[in-house]
Amino acid sequence: MIYRRFGFLHARVLLRKQDKLRQMEETLDTMDTKDARASDPLPNKALMSREIDESGTNTGPHETRAELLDRVEDDLVKYGKQIIYYKFFFYRSCKS
Asked: Is pLDDT of 71 > 90?
């Protein structure tokens, strides 16, 4: 039997995941820059201490750095698995 690989759809899904990761990376960079520029020393120390960062003293109504990093980790794992899956099946079928 012949099955379609849906290469175009795999590529679209991977590009979407890349863009989501890029957005999260940008948000994390913005958080870091904001904390680094803070006049209050506590947010500034959040960049150097996980305990201070996760203590909640520098959080507002928005997602915390730890919550964002948890989402980044989940999405990176999914992205990595999909890359491996796609490479395995795409390159395997090209060699046959």
From this structure: yes
Q: Scanning the structure block, which residue is given the tokens 């948000």?
A: 27
The residue assigned the tokens 């698995």 is 81
- Among 37, 14, 34, CA closest to 26: 34
pLDDT digit string, tens, across residues 47-70:
777 777 777 655 555 788 889 999
Domain ranges in the chain are 7-95
Would you say 47 and 32 are in contact if contact means Cβ atoms under 8 Å apart? yes
Give the residue from 64, 69, 45, 63 showing the smallest Cα distance to 54.
Answer: 64
* 65: amino acid identity, one letter: R
Is the Cβ–Cβ distance between 26 and 87 less than 8 Å? no
